[in-house]
TrEMBL record:
This is HTH cro/C1-type domain-containing protein. GO terms for molecular function: DNA binding. InterPro entries: Cro/C1-type_HTH, Lambda_DNA-bd_dom_sf. Residues 44-95 form the HTH cro/C1-type domain. It comes from Candidatus Wallbacteria bacterium HGW-Wallbacteria-1. It comes from the Bacteria. PROSITE patterns: HTH_CROC1 (PS50943).
Length: 132
């Protein structure tokens, strides 16, 4: 039992240092924003009872493109983000707020958005958010 606790502390320390290093990289923050946008689109789709194929049809895009969007695997233009919002009959709210240094970690309110498969039946709260 004691050994497991020590291993867990070492793992936690390793991941803490890994995240601290990653937070210094602007690419890390860009990926976090992609995840946040994807999660908001996914939640809006759920509220409207739309699947990927239906949203793709409304946008005149391929279903595989929507899959990439929902997995955070694509850089969206502002124009595409606006078009998605329009087709989902939703408005985007974008804020850039100053935060105390200790609140900047995107993992503070981390959700499983990046690691889940969009084809599962798992439901996510529309209030889930990642603080950036």
């Amino acid at each position: 039992m004691e050994m497991k606790s020590k291993e867990s502390k070492v793992e936690n320390n390793f991941f803490s240092r890994l995240f601290e290093e990653a937070e210094k990289d602007s690419k890390f923050h860009a990926e976090t924003l992609k995840i946040e946008i994807a999660e908001q689109i996914f939640c809006a789709m759920e509220r409207k009872n739309l699947n990927r194929a239906q949203l793709a049809e409304k946008l005149g895009l391929d279903k595989s493109y929507i899959s990439k969007v929902l997995k955070g695997n694509i850089n969206l233009t502002i124009e595409t983000i606006a078009k998605i919002g329009k087709e989902l009959e939703a408005a985007w709210t974008i804020k850039l707020e100053d935060k105390p240094r200790e609140e900047i970690s995107p993992y503070k309110d981390w959700t499983a958005a990046r690691i889940f498969d969009m084809d599962t039946s798992v439901k996510y709260s529309e209030n889930a958010a990642i603080t950036v």
